[in-house]
Structures are given as C-alpha cells and as structure tokens.
Design goal:
Elements (H helix, E strand, L loop, with lengths): L1 H30 L7 E15 L4 E5 L2 E9 L1 H11 L3 E11 L5 E12 L12 E2 L2 E2 L18 E5 L4 E13 L2 E15 L12 H6 L3 E13 L4 E14 L2 H4 L3 E11 L1 H48 L19
Antiparallel strand pairs: 1-2, 1-3, 1-13, 3-4, 4-5, 5-6, 6-7, 8-9, 9-10, 10-11, 11-12, 12-13
Length: 331
C-alpha cells in the first residue's frame, strides 16, 4: 500500500511541477489581455493656465483648463480586424476634449488606436488615425505592456504623429504602491492645426492660408504600475504656440495654451482602485499560483520519497518460539 501511495504522490508532484511553468510561460501570455469592450474616462486639469482668447487674440491667465480623455473599445471593429490579423486585437476610439474655465470647447482631437490585446504592440489596419488623418503608429500609447520592464520604450505622440523614447527614470512609491517612473520630452515641433476650432467660421485652411503655423512642446510623465502596465498617475507640462502671426494678430508668436496638466484627485483614487484589482488577477497567473504549485510539488515529492523509503525497510524478524517444556508422565 505504501508503495502504491508513493507512486500516486510522485505523479501528482510531477503534474504540479509541470503546471507551474506552463501557467507562467504558456497560459499567462494568452490569458492576460485588454478586454475589447473596455470603457474608461479620465479628467485632467491645468491650474492655473494660459489660454488664447480668440475674441481678443490675446493670451490670458485663466483659473483652469479641463481635459476629458475618453477611451472606448470598439468591439465590432476589433472583430473585423481580428479576422485578417489572426490575433486578439483591441480598437480604442479615443477623444481628448479640452474646455476652458467657462466650460466651452477649446479643442477636441479624436483618435483610433489599434493594438495587440496581449502585448500592446500597434496593429496597422484601416482606420488607424489621429484627428481624421491616417497614421502608422510605432511604439505604445496610453498603456504600457504587462510586466513592464525597467527600460526605455517607444511612445507615440499624437500631436507630432511620431514615436520617440520615453525614458525609465527609476522606481518610486506612489500612494503606497511601487511604480516605475517614465519621462518623455518632446522638443518644439511644428504640428498640424486641429480640425475642430473653437471659433465658428475659422478653419485650419484659413489659418494655413494666412501663414500661421502651430508649434508644440511637452514634458510627459507617467507613474506605471509594473505588473499591469497601467498608469496610476500622469502629468504633462504642455505648451502650444501660433507662430508667424504678426500679419493676422499683430505679433509674431502667440501662446495658445500653457499649463501643468494633472489628473484630478477623484480620478486618481478610482484609477488606483481599478489597477489594484487588476494587479491581483495578473499576479495570480504570473506568480501566486505558479509558486504555490512549485511548493506543493516539492511537498508531494518529499512525501513520496518518505513513503518509498519506509516501504523498503526490512521487516523485523518475528521473535523465536519458546522451547517446548517437557511434560512428565504421571506415576
């Protein structure tokens, strides 16, 4: 019986030992993915800020500028592209909607971001765009890969329509959570005019015909939870200018927008809660269950060897029978 039990325990130990790396290196890359129907909105603010008043054509100090960033999963487009791509694809229809202190629209820039659901690598397909212009993304945007590494990544900038390195700057603690800090500086670059302007009747074509050009620079900062690759905080020190404006506006350079953009406090809290719950699910696949299976395999192996050793011990010889006592016959 002991021999049979040790063989059963040995088989279970081999099974657990095989499942641990299978779960980590085979199942995890296939199971961990961004859902195609995800919806998320984030509100950011610049307090205070500088904003161009189009009625006076002067840059003015304002209390705040609000940026509403929306990411909406397009399930139908995901399925359409998956049929050709042969892999899990996510399509995010994104919108950056900027409002002034009076709540009126300052600008809005739609995007369509198509990427691999597991790796976050861009997938090139019809519809990939920024503000209606077709683009071919290189690098990541919005989210970092699962199990983010301590290295630089290529990060796509929607204003310039190009990718540039975003640099790993160290490990930090943000609200009790260990995060990786990344930073990217985009130098002054000439960028396209937004398709939607805040003043009715003014179009990008009219501004271009006047000789005006739009320039932009930003310092982008992300605090990334490394297990999920999700940002728990994001900031930008952002500045936009109109140049060659003397003919139309009386001076050569006008500030369109300048400010330090930060996530609003209530959204910092909700994003932190969401990332914490998703982090647990990823850790179950990548760490907790594989290590538990490894430990269980070692325990089962030890029990199997112990039972096998006990079954091989020589059995003690039975004690010798006592010598017969002679019985004397009665006289």
């Amino acid at each position: 019986m002991r021999r049979r039990a040790s063989l059963v325990l040995l088989a279970l130990a081999v099974f657990c030992a095989a499942m641990a790396p299978t779960l980590r290196w085979y199942a995890f890359p296939r199971l961990a993915k961004i859902p195609a129907n995800q919806y998320q909105d984030t509100v950011l603010e610049a307090r205070p800020a500088t904003l161009l008043n189009y009625s006076t054509l002067k840059a003015e100090k304002v209390d705040k500028i609000t940026i509403i960033q929306t990411l909406k999963g397009n399930v139908e487009e995901s399925r359409r592209i998956e049929r050709d791509a042969g892999r899990d694809v996510v399509v995010w229809d994104a919108l950056a909607y900027v409002t002034g202190p009076d709540g009126k629209m300052v600008s809005q820039v739609p995007e369509r971001y198509i990427f691999d659901a597991h790796t976050q690598d861009p997938v090139h397909a019809t519809g990939e765009s920024v503000d209606g212009d077709p683009v071919r993304r290189e690098g990541i945007e919005f989210k970092f890969p699962f199990l983010t590494e301590k290295r630089d990544y290529q990060y796509f900038d929607a204003q310039t329509r190009t990718a540039a390195p975003i640099h790993y700057k160290g490990t930090r603690t943000f609200r009790g959570m260990e995060v990786y800090y990344f930073e990217q500086t985009v130098p002054w670059t000439k960028v396209p005019m937004p398709k939607t302007m805040p003043v009715k009747g003014i179009t990008p074509e009219i501004l271009a015909d006047s000789g005006l050009t739009r320039w932009y620079t930003t310092k982008r900062m992300f605090w990334i939870e490394p297990v999920t690759g999700a940002p728990v905080n994001g900031e930008e020190i952002h500045k936009e200018e109109l140049r060659n404006a003397k003919k139309l506006m009386g001076q050569d350079t006008l500030t369109v927008f300048a400010g330090h953009v930060k996530m609003r406090e209530d959204y910092l809290e909700s994003v932190g809660e969401l990332v914490s719950s998703n982090r647990l699910m990823v850790l179950m696949l990548v760490s907790y269950i594989p290590w538990s299976l490894t430990a269980l395999a070692l325990v089962l192996l030890a029990l199997a060897l112990w039972l096998e050793a006990r079954s091989r011990r020589p059995r003690p010889e039975p004690p010798a029978a006592p010598a017969p006592v002679p019985v004397s016959a009665p006289l």
